[in-house]
């Protein structure tokens, strides 16, 4: 008797980017901060040291390193600050907007972020360049 079981296998493409974000006008404005999803950060923060999690809840936030994939393995990491506000929202500041402007990031671009636990840094990748 044929049970109609489908044994076809498919492989989904591996997607390491825990946070995928389409940049908004606020992310690329003079406010100079990149807002991050609470859901994505909820997956990342448990991988961080306790002291980092505690410091990110201060007004200054915690200093974090950010490695940009497009710049290659030998490139220097950027240093930004990660803040978790009292309402639970996360954002990066302290260098983000200068980086974004210098590298042509604009509203509509899509970026990906993940936490590299081995090096205690974020990895950033521009997934899609917005075309006007």
Which descriptors apply to this entry?
132 residues; alpha+beta; At1g16640 B3 domain; 7-stranded mixed β-sheet; 3 helices; 7 strands; 15% helix; DNA-bd_pseudobarrel_sf
Secondary structure topology:
Blueprint (H helix, E strand, L loop, with lengths): L18 E4 L11 E3 L1 H7 L5 H6 L6 E7 L9 E7 L5 E4 L2 H7 L7 E7 L4 E8 L4
Parallel strand pairs: 3-7
Antiparallel strand pairs: 1-6, 2-5, 3-4, 4-5, 6-7
Question: What features would you describe in this structure?
Answer:
With 132 residues, the chain is of the alpha+beta class. It has one domain: At1g16640 B3 domain (Beta Barrel). The chain has helices spanning 38-44, 50-55, 96-102, and strands spanning 19-22, 34-36, 62-68, 78-84, 90-93, 110-116, 121-128. A seven-stranded mixed beta sheet has the order 1-6-7-3-4-5-2. The chain is globular. The N and C termini lie far apart (57 Å). The mean pLDDT is 91. InterPro entries: B3_DNA-bd (IPR003340), B3_domain (IPR051442), DNA-bd_pseudobarrel_sf (IPR015300). Keywords: DNA-binding, Nucleus, Transcription, Transcription regulation. It comes from Microthlaspi erraticum.
CATH superfamily: DNA-binding pseudobarrel domain
* Beta content: 25-35%
| Helical percentage | 10-25%
DSSP summary, beta strand count: 7
Main sheet characteristics = 7 strands, mixed
Total tally of structural domains: 1
Nearest-angstrom radius of gyration? 18 Å
Shape: globular
Order of helices and strands: EEHHEEEHEE
Distance between the termini: 57 Å
CATH class: Mainly Beta
CATH A-level architecture: Beta Barrel
Structural class: alpha+beta
Number of DSSP helices? 3
Organism: Microthlaspi erraticum
GO molecular function: DNA binding
Keywords: DNA-binding, Nucleus, Transcription, Transcription regulation
Protein name: TF-B3 domain-containing protein
């Amino acid at each position: 008797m044929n049970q109609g079981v489908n044994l076809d296998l498919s492989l989904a493409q591996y997607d390491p980017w825990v946070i995928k974000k389409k940049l908004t006008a606020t992310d690329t404005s003079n406010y100079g901060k990149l807002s991050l999803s609470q859901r994505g950060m909820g997956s990342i923060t448990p991988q961080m040291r306790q002291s980092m999690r505690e410091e990110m809840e201060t007004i200054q936030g915690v200093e974090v390193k950010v490695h940009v994939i497009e710049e290659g393995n030998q490139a220097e990491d950027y240093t930004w600050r990660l803040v978790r506000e009292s309402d639970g929202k996360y954002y990066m500041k302290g260098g983000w907007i200068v980086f974004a402007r210098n590298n042509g990031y604009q509203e509509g671009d899509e970026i990906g972020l993940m936490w590299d636990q081995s090096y205690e840094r974020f990895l950033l990748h521009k997934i899609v360049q917005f075309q006007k």
